[in-house]
Amino acid sequence: MSVRVLLDTDIGTDVDDCLAIAFMLGSGEFTFEGITCVYGDVALRARMVRKLLELRGIEGVPIRLGARKPLLGLRDVYWEGHEGQGLIDEEPGEPFSNEYAADFIIRTIMENPGEIHLLAIGPLTNVALAMIKEPQLASSLRHLTIMGGVVRDYDSLDLPVAEHNIRCDPEAAHIVLSSGAPITLVPLDVTTKCSIRTVDSARLRAIGTPFHTAVAEQVDRYPRFARQGFTSLHDPLAAAIILQPDLVELTPVHIEVELAGRVTAGQTVAWVPSENHPENARIALRVDAGRAERYIIDRLMR
Questions:
Q1: If you average pLDDT over residues 5-16, what whole number do you get?
Q2: pLDDT class for 178, splitting at 50, 70, 90?
Q3: What is the C-alpha separation between 284 and 6, in angstroms, rounded?
Q4: 174 has catalytic annotation
Q5: In terms of residue numbers, what domain contains 41?
Q6: CATH number assigned to the domain comprising residue 179
Q7: How many separate domains does the chain show?
Q8: How distant, in Å, are the alpha carbons of 32, 103, 224 from that of 27?
């Protein structure tokens, strides 16, 4: 099976975007139609993407810069400050295309109706802008998989009320989730149950290629991993279920984003679909964590 995929990413300090790209490059079933970067210093993010592709020996994948700020500009951009350390050189290298990410997303999908799987693993600003500009975009997608959101059932009240990708631009998330696109949502409820550990990073480094060494370096440098010896496979799990949907249990839901709550802005609220609240997504609420971890780590080692 070959999946034509367009990846929208906020690759940076949290190593899960890097691991998602490494997983996809190690899988062989993905054909990258392009990679777009969103949120904050998108040029720095794009340099990280380009370096990973170069280390893997991949040429010709279009990389585009997208929105730096949330859709309405109402929230400060969260910038942790470790982005790119240990991966990219001081020199910025060749300039990137002037084509804006949202325009690239529109062009790629509308020229290939029903063929492109869009994988969004960052704030949804680029995707929302594309949907606003091209009303037929949602119906022209093969599928849209989003790493984002959190439901928090009775045994996961330790999770945050709002997940990072949605909280960074809830207005954009609202536009995307209400677009009518065929959507699979992969939230913290399942991604936090899958981890990469110190032993896995050591195995990656031991492979010895420049690519695997660079990925292992990014894992080891991630502050959360350095503190606790493991970190969650958020974005890699979203990529993995494109190929192996039975890694998770998908539930049809009607889901909306809280936009104005004092303590809940960015919260994803899901309920059973009904006539008044029709299904607008399938959400992963259960995961075969051990199998998912083995599947992802195996692809990272290739």
A1: 97
A2: very high
A3: 21
A4: no
A5: 3-300
A6: 3.90.245.10
A7: 1
A8: 12, 28, 26
Residue whose pair of structure tokens reads 């680029």 in the numeric block: 126
User: Mapping DSSP to helix (H, G, I), strand (E, B) and coil, where does residue 208 land?
Assistant: coil
The two structure tokens encoding residue 138: 């949602």
- What pLDDT digit, counting tens, does each position of 212-239 carry? 999 999 999 999 999 999 999 999 999 9
CA dihedral 18, 28, 180, 275 (to 10 degrees): -100
Tell whether pTM > 0.70: yes
d(CA 161, CA 276): 25
Which string of DSSP letters, residue by residue, matches 124-147?
Answer: SHHHHHHHHH-TTHHHH-SEEEEE
Question: pLDDT for 188-214, tens place per residue?
Answer: 999 999 999 999 999 999 999 999 999
Overall average pLDDT of the 38-44 stretch: 96
Active-site choice (164, 234, 254, 277) = 234
Residues facing 264 on adjacent strands: none
Q: What is the DSSP letter of 6?
A: E
